[in-house]
Structure formats: structure tokens, C-alpha cells
Amino acid sequence: MDLFLDPESGEPLAGQLYEQLRRAITGGRLLPGDRLVPSRQLAAELGVSRHTVATAYGRLVAEGYAEGHAGGGSVVAASPAPPKGVNRSGPAAALRPARRFAGWSPYFRPPPYGCRFDLRPGLPDPTLFPTLLWRRQVAAAVSSEHREYGDPAGRIRLRRAVADWVARSRSVAAGEDTLVITCGAQHAIDLVSRVLLEPGDCVAVEDPGYVPVVRLFTALGMRVVGVPVDDQGLVVDLLPPSARIVYVTPSHQYPLGMTMSMPRRRALLRWAARHDAAVIEDDYDTEFRYVDRPLEPLQALDASGRVVYVGSFSKTFSPSVRLGFAVVPQPLAEPIAALRQLIDWHPPTAMQTALAGFINDGLLDKHIRRSRRVYAERYHILTEALSGPLADHLTARTPNAGLHIAAFLRRGLSENEVLHTAARSGIVMAGLHDCFQASPAQPGLLIGFGPVSTTGLPTALGTLGRILAS
Amino acid sequence: MDLFLDPESGEPLAGQLYEQLRRAITGGRLLPGDRLVPSRQLAAELGVSRHTVATAYGRLVAEGYAEGHAGGGSVVAASPAPPKGVNRSGPAAALRPARRFAGWSPYFRPPPYGCRFDLRPGLPDPTLFPTLLWRRQVAAAVSSEHREYGDPAGRIRLRRAVADWVARSRSVAAGEDTLVITCGAQHAIDLVSRVLLEPGDCVAVEDPGYVPVVRLFTALGMRVVGVPVDDQGLVVDLLPPSARIVYVTPSHQYPLGMTMSMPRRRALLRWAARHDAAVIEDDYDTEFRYVDRPLEPLQALDASGRVVYVGSFSKTFSPSVRLGFAVVPQPLAEPIAALRQLIDWHPPTAMQTALAGFINDGLLDKHIRRSRRVYAERYHILTEALSGPLADHLTARTPNAGLHIAAFLRRGLSENEVLHTAARSGIVMAGLHDCFQASPAQPGLLIGFGPVSTTGLPTALGTLGRILAS
């Protein structure tokens, strides 16, 4: 092995030698039992004093890298090798993920190579992003920001801005003390659930529903029960009495798209009061509303303080900023902040400051209005296709809002086959089948119109029509 | 109540009226049982047709906000009020945090009003932050960044940059596939624990140890066992055989500051192999090393793939950027990414891109070298005071690295009293007492030298000396 000592470096030569030998041992270039070159010989080879080599060897022995050898001299110790009983080849059993994670891999991947039209649901159009305006906010935020650990509930400036904004845009009653800034809607759901639930608690979700949230509850070790939905939304009468949290998407049911009716909203709140359950209201994309006005959110209807309202800036603004929020009942605010401080503490300060400025300057409203106009065009193109050329093969329920439409496939068509054939033509969509849990799954397509261009969408739908017909 | 209809707005007048009355009801300005002004009278007052008012009232009745009244006319319905059985005054039982969070509040607060010298441990100096260089990186990142959902393991560019950096600076063997970008070190510990552990599993920590991590494991529902430390670090022989994770700070034990000796490192790895446990090695601040060279990290000594190495940019760079990382054994990389995608997904894309540029341009190394020189001066001021004027009252163990020194108080001095008297003089420190779990707690001070100025530190220590003497 090569040893190289540099007398000019300022490091003692013995230290340099020790360091290089240790690396050779831990790096496996010297193996347990290997004999170290006798100190006299090595000193001569390197042109250093024997004392230098002896010092380095002495330290290696003292620290257990080497041991004295019966015949004189030193050998590499046995201990840097893997401890006895360890299988070098297989992973340690200790490193096997808990059972509930067996075989998990990320559910969302970038569009595959060859994708021309990304028609997956829940994705905004990245080309609408107001890069220059945002960069200005971020640069200003970096210049002025506090460099210390911040408030685990989020910067007060951003909490005020978001509280005003949801009060204005969605009639949600939020104060700065009951609003928590998170890194997206699911992060909010995670924090609330961790504070409220014990392992094995029952959580009720819509069926069909939003798979990532179902998986999140599963990851939290909860028992997840799917509850059917009908035209009015979640069928409250079928809720399991033991549910401690009911997770719903009342403004725009995911994936089917209906709005939960007002009587059903009241029934859900009455049910929650009777069974002492909390309700998580996920309002993930109703800023993009094309028809009618929104109904009062559950959070505003709730007088007993058991509704958690979660929102995200991933659709209204961009998934890349990773910002969302929860409006929580007062008793939850402090425990969530305490828990949060132990985990990720808060989103980057500059991003929070920048978003506060962006909202306060009216730029978010402007961006949403502009985006809504663009998405409305695509929404109309898609609804017309679904009630026209595609109507023979797809039965769609036209939603009032959002970035996708769910459509059931006519009998005889295989969801898998349609998805695969479409993908071969460069069109990527999601299937409805996977959104079902206990209810009998119905084959269908979730057709998103976020990232696809307005000029490209008719082409994509034309191709889809030909695929369905053949 | 004021009703205001705007005939120019383009909204139907009936809709405007309905909206305002609904808000009045849900906002509590109209209470259950309140009689609505008769439609004929209201129409006259507002100067609209009676049909307009009747349409608005009809919708309120249809949606359950109002009901027909026996004597004719309409009254506000009972249902917007809290459902029966709910106590308006107290919080819903459903909203009580789980038992393990009872009474929790954030453990770290901004320095109190009147604080002149923040001598708390674990805080870097915010005035050292290279604002201009960082702003340039962030602005460039915002301009060019991807606007889609990103890789839940972190951007490949940043993973490569960090992997190279830890290999270079700490001899950690990390590939881009086994490195996960997180929002700080504790976020990494949280993710790893969630993937590996079942509720109630035993986790071993150092005693005294780092309280936030102890609390995090408690929040995760784990059984936390404190294991004593001696001059060589964690006493491996005292580890509980059932521990599934051993959490250690070998480079710079928190809070006492010793380095885990090489024999002890080997013993810990042998123990982990024999008991099939995982080891989390938290290397939170050893980039600031003033004496001697670092020993090989456990991660590099480990041949059986059971060590998770976690690091943070909160001390080396800034807590406000909220970035850290974990180097994980291969079998954990995919489940962590899958779990992560369900929670916060990834740190903001622009922050990741900016840090990658900052590291690749050599600016992080430069920043650390510059900071180390500044902290080294403060370290020497503090160690000299501890071996000089303060030695009568404090027994310090001088660490090789970090941003604080732990010092035991001489018999007879009360930790609480010293901390309170110091706080009254504008000096904020942390106590050692709270860091102990099972071991008999020893009173002492944790004296940080991060955020205090080099010129202010002697003044602060002079005041501390007078407080201790009196």
C-alpha cells in the first residue's frame, strides 16, 4: 500500500502516518491479521525516524485498530472487521421496515419517458407560475429574514395573511392563533393525526377516496374504514361508530367530484358531535371553481370546534414551494406546535416570508384568477368531449371545480388496457379502480387538465376517443 | 342588521341577499329562532321585488338555514346552532391530544425580552450568515427550477453534493441512492423511526442526552430508556437488550461533550449486531472542531449496514433554511421515500437547488471555515474563563468541538437559582439538570457561544462569575 507523508503540511508526521494506516484498516485495504511492516523497516522506507513510526503504531494499538503480535511487531486487529454473527451480504433484520410498510414505494412518479400529454389528476400547470414576481418576493425575503429558529406554528406574518385569505375566499373562520403553516395539506393531516390518535384508532375515509391519505393513515398505524359516497357526498349513516377522525373532501369529493350537500354537511357535524369524533375537511383545489358558488365549509358550519380545515398552496400556486396550512380548533394549536418543533420545526423562513408578501400584495388572488381562466377553458373542452365524442365510452359526472374529471368506463372496457394503450400513445392518466377500498370497484379514468396545454388537450382527447373506440 | 344589495355587481340580487343572510346566520348575528323580516317588508326596505326576497328565503329554507314558522313567515333554524349534546364552552373530547402529549408546549422559545447575551447551546451566530451569496443562489434557483412535485428523497443534484461533502469532510460513505434530504436532523430521525419501529418498541438514548430527541421518541409512542455515559461515551454494557434503535451522538456527546472512544464505538457496533438493533448516529455540530481530529464515524466503521447517519445544516449554515439529511442503509431508502411522499414530500425545490449550488461552488466549506475561526475564538475565551475565574464554581469538561460547553456547578449552588439570577442580568443559558432521565441528575450549566459576540462574551462571563460568587 502507498503511504505518503508531507513534511510541509504542518501536521506531525506520526499523525499523518496514523491517519493513513487507520483509513487503510477501516477501508479494508489492510485486513484483520495483516502484519504491519516492522517499524524499523517502514521508517527507513519513508525516511522518517523510527520513533515517528512507533508513535503511529502505538496509537493504532491504543485505539484498537492493531494489536501486539506474539512474534513481535503488530497486526491489524480483528475488531475493525464486521462483528461476529453479522451477515455481510444480507441486510440486518433490524433494518427491515415495519410490516405496514412492506413493499411500499413512492406512488407518484414523474411522467414516464415518451409522455406527450400528462392527464393525471391533481397537477397544476407549471407554465403558469409567475416566476419573476415570485423571485422578487423570495430575494427580498432572503435579504431581510430572521436567521434563528422560528415559530413552529409558522411566521406570524404568514399566518395572518393566510387567515385573512381563507376568511375572504372560503368563509373559514381562522385566527392567527389557530392557523398552522405546514409543508402541504398531507403534512397538516399527519400532524393533526399524530397529536389526536392512538395506534389502532379507527379513521373513516370516503370510498372511493384519496389514496395517498388512506396510505398516510395506514402508515400512522391506524385502522382505516372506507365509507361509501353518493350524489350528496359521504353517506353519514354508514360511518363506523368508533371512528375518531372522519376525513372528507366536501367541496369537491376526490375522486368523483360531487359537492357534499348542505343537509349532509349538517348530518356529518351532528354525527361527529354524537360520536365525539373530529372531522378533517380537506379543501384541496376548490379555488378552481367553474360553476356555481361554493357552499359554506364544514369548518364555518361547525359550532362545536371539532373540524380541522386543511388547505394547500400546491394547486393554487405550486407544488415546488411545499406550503400548506391547517385551521385547527384552539386546544390543538399548542400541542401541534410542540410536536412540530421536534420534527421539521417550520418551513424555510424565506419561503414563508415570500408567500406572505405574495398574498398581501394581492398577487396570489391575481394568479388564481388568471389560472382559473386558463383551467376553465380546458374544463369546457373536456366536458364537451365527455358529453360528445367520448360519451359512448365514458360516463362522466361533471364537477363544479377542480383540476380533473372522473369518468366511468362503459361495460366491457378494461381500465388497465385503456390506461396502457393510452400510455403507449403518450397519454398518461390515472385509473379510478385503485381509489376504491371496500366498495365494489368500478373501472374508470381520472382525466386531469392541469399540466396539459389548451391547444394540446383536444388532440389528446381525440386520441383517447380512438383508443376507446378500437 | 345591514343588508346591502349591489345591482351593478352582475350577481343576481336574490343570490346576494341569500349570501348575506346565510353569513349572518352562520356568523351568529342571526340566532336560532330569530324571525326573518317578512318578505313584503324587506322587499320594500331594499327596493327590490318581493319575488327576489322570496327566492332568497326559499333557498335558506331548502338548505336548512331557516324554517317555516307556525304563524307564517320564516325563522332561523335550530340546526346552525351546535348539535345537541355538545358543550359549547369546553373543547370536544375528540380534540383532546393523546395522553403522551398532555401539557406539551414548545420547548424552545425566542430569547426573552431583556436578553443581552444568548448563551443557550446549539445556536449558530446569525450574523455570520452570507446573505448576499445565498440570495444569489436562491434567486438563480427560483428562476430555473422545476415546478412539479419532486423526488421525495430530495433533488438528485443536492443528494450528490451532500454525499460528496460528507465523504470529504466526515469520511461517511454515502451514495446518492442512500442519502435522503430532510428538513433538519430530527426530521430524519422521525422518518427513520416511523419506518422501522412499532408502537411501544424500546429505544435507547444517552443519559444525560438531548431532550428534544427523547421527546420525539416519546411522541412516536416508543419506550425510551436512558443509558449512562462515561468519559468514553455511552456505556454499551448497560444497553437494554430489547432496544431496537440506539440513538447516540458519538462525535460530540450532547450535552457533556466527550467523544466516543474507538473501543466503545466498536463495542456499540458489536452490541447492535448481537442484538439486531439499528444505530442512529447524530453528528449535529462537529464541523466546528477546535482540537484534535475527528474519529471515524460509526457509519464508516459499520460493516453490517445498521447505522443511520444524520446531519443538519442548521448549525453549519442556518436553522432558517431547514435542511438536513440522513445517510441510510440501502433497504431503508425506498420505504422512507414512500412514506415521505405522503407527508411533506420534499423541502422546497428552490432551497434544495440553492444549497446544491452553494456546496458545489465551495461556499459552504468557506462559510464553515470562516465560522469555525470565529467560534474558535469564543471557545478559547470560554475555556480560559472556565479554567480561570469560573473554576471555583464550575467544573467543565472541555470538548473538542461544538457550540457549547457543559459545566457542573459546585456543591451548594442551585441550578435554578443561578439560571434565574443570570436571566435577570440579561444572560440566558440552559441547565444540565433537565438532560438527565434515569441517572441521578447533576446540576450544571450548558454555556453556548454561538450567537454571543466575541466582544460581548467576556462581559457575559464576568457577570456570570459575579453571580456565582455571590
Question: What features would you describe in this structure?
Answer:
The structure is a homodimer of 470-residue chains. By secondary structure, the first copy, chain A, is α/β, with parallel strands linked by helices. Helix content of chain A is 37%, strand content 14%. The first copy, chain A, contains 14 helices and 16 strands. Chain A has helices spanning 13-26, 39-46, 50-62, 131-144, 156-170, 185-196, 211-219, 262-275, 298-301, 330-341, 349-360, 363-387, 415-424, 456-469; strands spanning 66-68, 74-76, 117-118, 179-182, 202-207, 223-230, 233-234, 243-248, 278-282, 307-312, 324-327, 394-396, 404-409, 427-428, 430-431, 444-448. An 8-stranded mixed beta sheet of chain A has the order 4-11-10-9-8-5-6-7, with helices on both faces. In chain A, helix 2 packs across helix 3 and helix 5 (156-170) packs across helix 11. The longest helix of chain A is centred in the C-terminal third of the chain and has 25 residues, at 363-387. Chain A is elongated. Chain A starts with 12 loop residues before the first helix and ends with a helix. Mean pLDDT of chain A is 90; it is low at 81-90. At the A-B interface, helix 1, helix 4, helix 6, helix 7 and helix 8 of A face helix 1, helix 4, helix 6, helix 7 and helix 8 of B.
